[in-house]
Prior knowledge:
Strand order of the largest sheet: 2-1-3-6-7
Shape: globular
Order of helices and strands: EHEHEEEHEHEH
Largest sheet: 5 strands, parallel
Distance between the termini: 17 Å
Structural class: alpha/beta
Amino acid sequence: MKESKQILVVDDDPDIRIMIKMMLEYNGYAVEVTDKGDTSEELIRSGRFHLTIMDMLLSGMSGVDICARLKQDQSIKPIPIIMISAHPNAKKMCIDAGADAFIAKPFDMQELLGMLERHL
């Protein structure tokens, strides 16, 4: 069996975290979830994850700001960050911050899986 890719999911909505975690684990990925923007930055910098899925709006923090800070770090920059949001102007803001991809909420899980495969 191939080594499963480590995915970090950062979203302050527990239903979305659970749904994404279940779907990705069902498809063979190892998944860790958090609702905390500040700890997500530490987790991503740990180098344990092959890809991060992050909500644009986190409680008390901006996922866009976190993404921009991470993408300025040359050692972190190659690790893909897929941003997700229901905000109408989110795509441009996320891509401008350096996100590798963007998916609007609500999203189709097959679309998310396809995007993961392209970025891994």
